[in-house]
UniProtKB/TrEMBL annotation:
<dbReference type="InterPro" id="IPR001611">
    <property type="entry name" value="Leu-rich_rpt"/>
</dbReference>
<dbReference type="InterPro" id="IPR032675">
    <property type="entry name" value="LRR_dom_sf"/>
</dbReference>
<dbReference type="Pfam" id="PF00560">
    <property type="entry name" value="LRR_1"/>
</dbReference>
<protein>
    <recommendedName>
        <fullName>Leucine-rich repeat-containing N-terminal plant-type domain-containing protein</fullName>
    </recommendedName>
</protein>
Length: 80
């Protein structure tokens, strides 16, 4: 658990394949998502950071991520 620790900077380009759960929530992380962020066997929480989605992907999250918290759906429709 690395959430709420005032971490800054980018996510690492490489992580151990043996990691199953990573919580980087509520920090000040920036940058884009590394390729490991969508590993099927990884539970990842990136809520409340400052990531950029970039103009090349039209503001969409990487495949496998929902609201920056993998395996947790969120409301994506228009508020009523």
């Amino acid at each position: 658990f690395l959430g709420n620790n005032s971490l800054t900077g980018r996510l690492p380009d490489v992580i151990s394949r043996s990691l199953k759960t990573i919580d980087f929530s509520y920090n000040q992380l920036t940058g884009s998502f590394p390729s490991w962020a969508t590993q099927n066997n990884l539970q990842l929480n990136l809520v409340a950071n400052n990531f950029v989605l970039g103009s090349t992907n039209n503001g969409t999250l990487p495949s496998g991520l929902n609201c920056l918290q993998q395996d947790t759906p969120c409301f994506r429709g228009t508020p009523e």
